[in-house]
């Protein structure tokens, strides 16, 4: 029954955001910064698109969240951690809570589908018994059960990206970052990947997707952050739910 008081939303509003950019700027060299003075908050369970033309600073934002690079000024907080305070030895562990997929899939060419996904579990020392259970489960969600013995070269682009997604998700990350995940896919495969990202988000993972695909952004009706020349020029919630800021 509909209630005027939405408890779930009220609880979300008092919870600290899972991602915070606080006056973040990044300059790779002297000259124009790649991003300037970005302020941004993303709550747990949100689905957010980051759009903007090439060179506008989208990948720089993703790299900052992964702590692949450091801001020139400002602070990035992810998973309630100030990333500037993470010591080198803690970075690998920090990244375990973040799944990542890229445009070019980045699969291991000489390993089959099962092993590509299992790899993500082996590197964190997951016991074989868990791998045998969890890898087939995520491959099934991605519609890849039949392909578990195939090599990446034997798969279509869409299938390869689903393997990359399975690998990103097998360790149940809190956040999934996708940098142009459909950049190399045709419209049908792009749409399939978006549907999977939506399902993953509905199960609770915070999903952040960088994309050029305006059609997909229009169809999905999610929060859209637009970058232009390193500046955040708009942050809009499409559809019903408004995020608290
Ligand atoms: N490693 C780097 N060294 C120098 N400049 C870089 C580097 N990476 C990105 N840039 C510059 O920073 C700006 C933003 O790049 P990027 O974040 O990759 O944009 P986008 O992902 O939106 O295409 C661009 O002008 C780009 O040339
Ligand atoms: Mg980019």
Which structural class is indicated by helix and strand composition?
Answer: alpha/beta
How large is the count of helical segments? 8
User: What fraction strand?
Assistant: 15-25%
Q: Biggest sheet: strands side by side, in what order?
A: 6-7-8-3-9-10
Shape: globular
Q: What is the distance, rounded to the nearest whole angstrom, between the alpha carbons of the first and last residues? A: 28 Å
Question: Would you write up a description of this structure?
Answer:
This protein has a domain at 108-172. Helices cover 34% and strands 23% of the residues. The chain contains eight helices and ten strands. Strands 6-7-8-3-9-10 form a six-stranded mixed β-sheet, with helices on both faces. A four-stranded antiparallel β-sheet has the order 2-1-4-5, with helices on one face. A hairpin with an 8-residue loop joins strand 1 and strand 2. Helix 4 crosses helix 5. The model has no long low-confidence stretch (mean pLDDT 93). The structure holds adenosine-5'-diphosphate (ADP) and magnesium ion. Residues 28-29, 34, 52, 54-60 line the site of adenosine-5'-diphosphate. Adenosine-5'-diphosphate is lined by residues 28-29, 34, 52, 54-60.
List keywords for this structure.
alpha/beta; 6-stranded mixed beta sheet; 8 helices; 23% strand; binds adenosine-5'-diphosphate; binds magnesium ion
Write a concise synopsis of the structure shown:
The chain is built from 8 helices and 10 strands. It has 245 residues and is an alpha/beta fold. Residues 58-59, 179 line the site of magnesium ion (MG).
């Amino acid at each position: 029954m509909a209630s005027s008081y939405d408890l779930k939303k009220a609880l979300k509003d008092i919870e600290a955001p899972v991602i915070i950019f606080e006056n973040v700027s990044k300059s790779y060299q002297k000259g124009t910064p790649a991003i300037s003075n970005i302020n941004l908050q993303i709550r747990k369970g949100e689905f957010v698109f980051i759009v903007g033309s090439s060179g506008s600073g989208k990948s720089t934002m993703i790299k900052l969240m992964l702590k692949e690079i450091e801001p020139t000024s400002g602070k990035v907080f992810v998973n309630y951690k100030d990333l500037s305070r993470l010591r080198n030895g803690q970075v690998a562990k920090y990244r375990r809570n973040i799944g990542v997929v890229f445009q070019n899939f980045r699969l291991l060419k000489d390993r089959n589908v099962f092993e590509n996904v299992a790899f993500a579990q082996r590197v964190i020392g997951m016991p074989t018994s868990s791998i045998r259970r969890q890898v087939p489960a995520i491959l099934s969600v991605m519609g890849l059960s039949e392909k578990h013995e195939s090599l990446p070269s034997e798969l279509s682009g869409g299938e390869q990206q689903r393997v990359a997604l399975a690998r990103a998700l097998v360790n149940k990350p809190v956040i999934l970052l996708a940098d142009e995940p459909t950049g190399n896919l045709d419209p049908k495969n792009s749409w399939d990947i978006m549907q999977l990202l939506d399902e993953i988000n509905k199960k609770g993972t915070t999903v952040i997707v960088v994309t050029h695909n305006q059609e997909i952004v229009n169809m999905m009706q999610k929060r859209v952050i637009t970058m232009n020349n390193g500046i955040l020029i708009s942050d809009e919630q499409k559809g019903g739910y408004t995020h608290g800021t």
